[in-house]
Request: fold
Amino acid sequence: MSLKAVIFDLDGVIVFTDQFHYRAWKKMADSMGIYFDETINHRLRGVSRMDSLEIILERYKGEPLSREKKEELAASKNESYRELLATMTPADVTDEVRETLAEIRRRGYGISLGSSSKNAKFILERVGLTDAFDEISDGTNITRSKLDPEVFVKAAQFLGQAPEDCLVVEDAEAGIDAGIAGGMHTAAIGEATKCGKADYNLETFSDLLKILS
Ligand code: BG6
Ligand code: MG
Reply:
């Protein structure tokens, strides 16, 4: 097996923004009288903003909402979410993640982000990790969300690498499916280890160094 590059999901792999997403969606749901809890929040992992809204609206009992109203709801969620993201600092990334990324670069691998988030660059800036990535493929350069492989295929293209030479690191089953669909190797961490579909299950982030010699 020849691996030349690593493509990292962001939320749930590099940083842990679940609670911020939860609090921001909860505020929006409460304002509409929609039931929303942590279990529903889990279903939003790796899912785009508008698709997440549709999942939350499954519990909405009022008149059908127009496209404009849905965009307004997603924008209000994003405003609350950005306020929470603005509180992030470099202390929100563990030394293990920072040092592992640096070591992967030292070993000569290309490194790209592969995140569905349109806030990815803002998050990387907040936590001081922008320079750890050679390329960034995120929610601003895709039209289809994971399980579609588009975000990872673009990341491989940005890096100038063939999909079969890339390893995708993901915490969401949808992201592992996307990596497989893109013809890449996959490493699962956290929740995604339970799906049993990835080539590797990581117990901890630095386990990557055992795969990338
Ligand atoms: C993914 C998160 O990384 O980004 C999802 O796992 C989120 O929960 C998605 O919905 C889109 O994020 P954003 O920042 O563009 O609203
Ligand atoms: Mg994720």
The longest helix spans residues 67-85. The chain has nine helices and six strands. The chain has a mean pLDDT of 96. Strands lie at 5-8, 110-114, 135-137, 166-170, 185-189, 200-202.
